[in-house]
């Protein structure tokens, strides 16, 4: 099955970068999920939780504001602040 | 000719100085590694943001473009942000940035443009207040921050945006030192406003039709101020790494010079000590002969 390349980047460093199955993120106009081969899409983000699923593993990040860019080469979140939360 | 005691004092004082410069060199080396890592780690964010903006900007160029991108259409009033070190003892680090900035400022003044200056770093303020006292509109002292984060760069970006939005300036240029390597830091001018969109081709070709939420303009509107802050932050991080690199080099030189000095003084000291012993011997022998 196709994978989605997802990276989560904060100003200080890159928190996550790998191929995953699904990512849910809090968009400014509503939460959304991104699967592999998503149509190109760009949005601002509000404060909330990003869920990254890969197989049976789930990773959670809390972000504060930022920006999401879904392109043909993957999904990138540029967050203003981001911390990983123990799931 | 200095007395033996004077020379002994001088040697021990140079030795003490050498110890200090040696310690400073080692501290700088350790901090250099940390700040270099910080500068590296911040790069992906800045790069991605720049490429996203480049992508967006090609779409909204024209009348609807936000002011930060389009500029005011004039080029009469310039704001120059000069960022360098808060501390000294780093060789010509601050001076080389200030020199580049002064050349730029003098060029603008010669063209009859209006120039304003924002200083970032205590040493910069000291060096620019003298020649351009009335042009310095604001200055920042970053020495109290232990770590450079977005919240450090934010107030600088705020001042820049405020001046720009108030119509006080048309073009904003940032001077900082780009960290090329440990031995090479290049004073660099970076135009902040109007934003320079790097000619990087859209990663996916123009065919990618993006959906935007909210509108393209609204996204660009929020991204551009952030990009400004991020650009300032990465300049500050580069500066930090460059500062420690040049402090390390400067202190290494100082340690070596102190070593040379100690060698020279010790030689001189031993010579005059021996000369004195010989003189005393001659006096004793000739005294004994006379008896």
From TrEMBL, chain A:
Limits of the ATP synthase F1 complex delta/epsilon subunit N-terminal domain: 4-82
Domain of life: Bacteria
Gene Ontology MF term list: ATP binding; proton-transporting ATP synthase activity, rotational mechanism
Major subcellular location class: membrane
Keyword list, A-Z: ATP synthesis, Cell membrane, CF(1), Hydrogen ion transport, Ion transport, Membrane, Transport
Record keyword DNA-binding present: no
Keyword Metal-binding among UniProt keywords: no
Membrane topology listed for this record: Peripheral membrane protein
Compartments where found: Cell membrane; Endomembrane system
Any one Gene Ontology cellular component term annotated for this protein: plasma membrane
Matching HAMAP family: ATP_synth_epsil_bac
Subunit structure: F-type ATPases have 2 components, CF(1) - the catalytic core - and CF(0) - the membrane proton channel. CF(1) has five subunits: alpha(3), beta(3), gamma(1), delta(1), epsilon(1). CF(0) has three main subunits: a, b and c.
Matching NCBIfam families: ATP_synt_epsi, PRK13449.1
Role, per record: Produces ATP from ADP in the presence of a proton gradient across the membrane.
Family note: Belongs to the ATPase epsilon chain family.
Name of the featured protein: ATP synthase epsilon chain
Organism (species): Caulobacter sp. 602-2
UniProtKB/TrEMBL annotation, chain B:
Source taxon at top rank: Bacteria
Spans through the membrane: none
Keywords: ATP synthesis, Cell inner membrane, Cell membrane, CF(1), Hydrogen ion transport, Ion transport, Membrane, Transport
GO terms for MF: ATP binding; proton-transporting ATP synthase activity, rotational mechanism
Keyword Cell membrane found: yes
A cellular-component GO term for this protein: proton-transporting ATP synthase complex
Subcellular location(s) of the protein: Cell membrane; Membrane; Thylakoid
Major subcellular site: membrane
KW Chaperone (keyword) present: no
Annotated Gene3D superfamilies: 3.40.1380.10, ATP synthase, gamma subunit, helix hairpin domain
Gene Ontology biological process terms, A to Z: proton motive force-driven plasma membrane ATP synthesis
Membrane topology value: Peripheral membrane protein
Function (record text): Produces ATP from ADP in the presence of a proton gradient across the membrane. The gamma chain is believed to be important in regulating ATPase activity and the flow of protons through the CF(0) complex.
Oligomeric form and interacting partners: F-type ATPases have 2 components, CF(1) - the catalytic core - and CF(0) - the membrane proton channel. CF(1) has five subunits: alpha(3), beta(3), gamma(1), delta(1), epsilon(1). CF(0) has three main subunits: a, b and c.
Protein family according to the UniProt entry: Belongs to the ATPase gamma chain family.
PANTHER family: ATP SYNTHASE GAMMA CHAIN, ATP SYNTHASE SUBUNIT GAMMA, MITOCHONDRIAL
Entry-linked NCBIfam families: ATPsyn_F1gamma (TIGR01146), PRK05621.1-4 (NF004146)
Protein name: ATP synthase gamma chain
């Amino acid at each position: 099955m196709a994978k989605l390349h997802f990276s989560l980047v904060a100003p200080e460093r890159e928190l996550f970068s790998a191929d995953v199955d699904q990512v849910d993120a809090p968009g400014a106009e509503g939460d959304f999920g991104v699967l592999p081969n998503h149509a190109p899409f760009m949005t601002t983000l509000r404060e909330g939780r990003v869920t990254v699923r890969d197989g049976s593993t789930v990773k959670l990040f809390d972000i504060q504001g930022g920006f999401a860019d879904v392109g043909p080469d993957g999904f990138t979140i540029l967050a203003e602040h981001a911390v990983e939360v123990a799931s | 000719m200095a007395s033996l005691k004077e020379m002994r004092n001088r040697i021990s004082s140079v030795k003490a100085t050498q110890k200090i410069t040696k310690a400073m060199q080692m501290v700088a080396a350790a901090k250099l590694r940390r700040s270099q890592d910080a500068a590296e780690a911040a790069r992906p964010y800045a790069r991605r943001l720049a490429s996203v903006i480049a992508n967006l900007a090609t779409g909204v160029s024209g009348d609807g473009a936000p002011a930060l991108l389009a500029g005011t259409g004039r080029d009469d009033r310039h704001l120059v942000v000069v960022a360098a070190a808060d501390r000294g003892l780093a060789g010509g680090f601050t001076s080389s940035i200030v020199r580049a900035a002064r050349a730029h400022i003098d060029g603008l003044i010669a063209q009859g443009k209006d120039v304003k200056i924002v200083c970032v770093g205590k040493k910069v303020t000291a060096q620019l207040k003298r020649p351009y006292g009335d042009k310095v509109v604001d200055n920042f002292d970053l020495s109290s921050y232990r770590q450079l984060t977005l919240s450090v760069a934010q107030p600088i970006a705020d001042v820049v945006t405020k001046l720009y939005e108030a119509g006080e300036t048309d073009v904003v240029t940032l001077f900082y030192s780009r960290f090329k390597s440990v031995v090479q830091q290049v004073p660099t001018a970076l135009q902040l406003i109007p934003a320079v969109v790097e000619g990087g081709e859209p990663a996916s070709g123009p065919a990618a039709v993006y959906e935007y939420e909210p509108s393209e303009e609204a996204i660009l509107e929020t991204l551009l101020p952030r990009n400004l802050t991020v650009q300032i932050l990465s300049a500050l991080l580069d500066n930090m790494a460059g500062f420690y690199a040049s402090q390390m080099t400067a202190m290494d030189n100082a340690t070596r010079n102190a070593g040379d000095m100690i060698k020279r003084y010790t030689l001189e000291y031993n010579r005059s000590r021996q000369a004195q012993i010989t003189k005393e011997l001659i006096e004793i022998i000739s005294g004994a002969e006379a008896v």
